[in-house]
């Protein structure tokens, strides 16, 4: 009977080790990836809203608050709103017209949420 309880204890220790050494780190990594993806989706949704506002209001210039990182913002004036620069990934930025940017953002949001 002692061997059954010892083998059960050994099996339990193996399961605990597996959970702590393999599954828990994978869970942390997956949650971090999910959070990063959710943040990217949120940023592209904000960009889509801004592009829609530019299209509907037909503004020639724009004054806005620019996020410069770490929750710091600076006032910015955009003299020409016909072209926007979009981060397309891997730290590449492309200048597009507003309709081109709207198409890109819509496709990218579809890919992100697929």
From TrEMBL:
Record-level Gene Ontology MF annotations: transcription coregulator activity
Gene Ontology biological process terms in this record: positive regulation of transcription by RNA polymerase II
CDD domains cross-referenced by the UniProt entry: Prefoldin_UXT
GO cellular component terms attached to this protein's record: mediator complex
InterPro entries according to UniProt: Prefoldin, Prefoldin_subunit_alpha
PANTHER family (UniProt xref): MEDIATOR OF RNA POLYMERASE II TRANSCRIPTION SUBUNIT 10, PROTEIN UXT
Protein name, as recorded: Uncharacterized protein
Originating organism: Peronospora farinosa
